[in-house]
Amino acid sequence: MKTLLSFGHGYSARALTPLLLAQGWTVIGTTRSDEKAEALRAEGVEPVIFGAPLDTALARASHVLISAGPDVTGDPVLNAYLPMLETHLGSKAWVGYLSTTGVYGDHDGGWVDEDTPLTPTTRRGRLRVEAEAAWQDLAARTGAPLHIFRLAGIYGPGRGPFEKVRNGSARRVVKPGQVFSRIYVDDIAQVLMASIARPDPGAIYNLCDDDPAPPQDVIGHAAELLGLPLPPEVDFEAAEMSPMARSFYAESKRVRNDRIKADLGVTLRFPDYRSGLANLLQRDRDSGIVQT
């Protein structure tokens, strides 16, 4: 039986889970609280509290996914489980590490691909570069079939702009020349499924849609879909933002996704934010959040 052990079983991994369960897989996911463990169990996942012994789970797993992000102490999975990973990881059929396109740094709105040098300008980006290198080093030492997935800005159910537009708190923050790449969470799941079906150890993939766009355009389109007035424009320099939110504007780039199409045969379900937002709105209507 195929079994996925998912370290840091969060938003993207939870989108992957139903696809695997439908094919008869077992999914084991780590989490940090009993409350979250119960939520995972309700979704068909075998929960394990992160930090508990995982030798048995890792021995059972045929595939491993790492979603947990690094901090100033390094990669949490490697910190907690390195000896166990050194023993078991080389025998797995597939190992996936979810990283970020933040590793490329700022390119003044220019295009980047998987071969672009890694020149992060934020601390988060630098930590990701270090974490990628640590996992690549482990793979080189153990023969683990590591695949790295660099994710653009993730959106999807529960992570769309509609709530803020509805409650009037949305703003169109404008910074000239600023563009972001995005990826709908369901497309992350389908790319991971395609890679699992077609392993290529050592491969690195950008996960993003076909339409990098200024953030204010996305907010404006969400308002149009809802039939509400456009949220006010606010100049980036004058906008009240948290340091975390402001840091996202430190880098502007367009990310190429040719490799997931050419190497994995992926056709994006949501190739731009317009199709993605239309789907989110329909989901809201189907769930009764908004009236049709």
From TrEMBL:
Keyword Methyltransferase: no
Ranges where the NAD-dependent epimerase/dehydratase domain occurs: 9-207
Keywords: NAD
SUPFAM superfamilies referenced in this protein's UniProt entry, alphabetically: NAD(P)-binding Rossmann-fold domains (SSF51735)
Keyword NAD: yes
Ranges in coiled-coil conformation: none
InterPro entries membership: Epimerase_deHydtase (IPR001509), NAD(P)-bd_dom_sf (IPR036291)
Gene3D superfamilies given in the database record: NAD(P)-binding Rossmann-like Domain
Protein name: Nucleoside-diphosphate-sugar epimerase
Species whose genome carries this gene: Jannaschia helgolandensis
